[in-house]
Model the fold of this input.
Amino acid sequence: MSLRAKLLFIFVTLAMVPALAVGIVNYLSGTRAVEALLRAEAEGRAARMARRVEDGLAAHERRLAELASEQSLRAYVRDRSSGASSSVVKPDAPEMVRAQLVAFFQNNGAHFESITCLDRTGGRLFRVAAVQGGAPQFQTEDFVATSVRHDERVWQSTRVEPLRSPLTQEPYGVFLSITVPIFAGDEGDRATGALVLEVKLREVLDVAAGVGEGFESSNGLEAHAPPTVVALDNATGRIVYHTNDALIYKPVRSAMPAFELLATKMQAGATGHGFYDAPDGDEWVAAFTQVAGLNLSLAVAENYGAAALGVRRAGALGVALPLLAGLAAIAMLLHLVGRLTQRLERVAVGAAQIAKGDLNQHIEIHSTDETRVLAESFNLMSDQLREKIQRETETKQFESFTRLSAMLTHDLKNAITGLSMLVSNMERHLHREEFRADAVFGLREATEKLKRIVSRLNEPVKSLSGEYRRDARPTDLVPIIRRVLETNAYPAAALYETDARLPENLFAIVEPERIENVIENLVINALEAMGARGGRLTIEAGREDENRIYFIVADTGLGMDEEFIRLRLYRPFATTKQKGIGLGLYTCREVVETHGGKLQVESKPGAGTRFRVVLPSRRFAPEERPRPSSGGTVES
Done:
């Protein structure tokens, strides 16, 4: 990425993006605040409307129950009921009954369609009905042919208790019937008659919604539009009340398709809020609740789109202004960066020549800004780099010599250790014939090993593990392991118990001499870890899978903690022994990994150590198995 692109990215990331983010956050927070206020307003209106409906109906029911308990009305119903089967002329309604019913009707005339008094058979005794433009009409005869909808449960009632019938829909409106029993005798007997009040639901909802009272927002927002009120009959799913008269008595699915999801929740008896889209495209937020005892749900919707219009415009302006200012700043920045880039390109060309190795390169810049300081820094760096490379070349040569010396010293130490153990055992076991034979074999092997160490002095590069790899070949490791044990472990059998679990043969693709050094290092380390107190040395080998073999060297020595294994075990020149230079395990790992294998270790303080070496191999069929030569190497 060029400098211009980087600066542009930084400016956009650190300047424009935060400014735009602030504008977007303000926009979102503003719209959410409007949403919260409108939702609270709608929820408050819906709750108040439901409460007004419930309180109004409860008041009508209480007054109707009081009228049904009036002594004069009870006596009238008793008299009419007792004369129903005689030829005596039935008495007319008492004046007091007329006055009370008419007064009740007039006080709430906008809400009522009629009040009808029924006898025990359901026959009408009298009826108070609304008359357009006049006082209520009290009728005792010439009733309208249609029957009065009343709750049949009234005839089983034993006390004065209002009963609400389901909503009924007529071409001229939606009604709610409230039936109250009349007891000619004492309560506890069956009802003798009943008062049936037909309530105009629309007028009740008009009053509850505050129609005609004017619209005033209580949430601090500017009055944008009156709310929409919707009332649903939960049983039928029809709209029984709506601010728009054209939608009344229609199913929600056809009248307000966008409102259907909320209507489903309302019919299920739920309360809450939600959004829907009006036909004109505005988004509305609606809060809905239930009216107790009516199987009726109410929803009050506020025009969220209109209320949030000002906030959205302000938010869009808050996003557009930082964007325009940022684009202007980018144009100025690109102009300045273009001039700086030309000077930087000259510095970059000189630096590229230095990177290719031309340390005699000298960058010339004649400006007075920071690019001149940069060019002079590159010139100084190239001069210092020439001197440093020269010093490092000399240092590397010395380090290579030191490393080679340390490795040869380590191998010599191992050879001398084996000879020392052999000599110490000669003083005690030289009289034994079998020991003398083993001693001669051990001396011969030690001599051969010293010859190999001396020969490595003639090829110092090949002596550095990991820096040069000779040709690996199929090698049987079993003879090599046994030779190492005979040279280093078996002579000390009086002090150490050796347990060798080896197969008949075990072929690996390795360099025999280097793998023998690895095995010898691990065995000697195990013996030294157990020390003079003795212990048990375990050697185990076998196949890991079709392409790998393994061998294990385990001891019962002091062991190591996890921190030492993680930080120091394989570090060159790091050791816990009082003698030694700390190259044994480092060299072992180098040799194993050079051959494509891995060296694993498990150890706990006081519980000993277990080294596991995995090497590449191949499985030979019996008829093609190579024959090992001396030293375990086979023809490939």
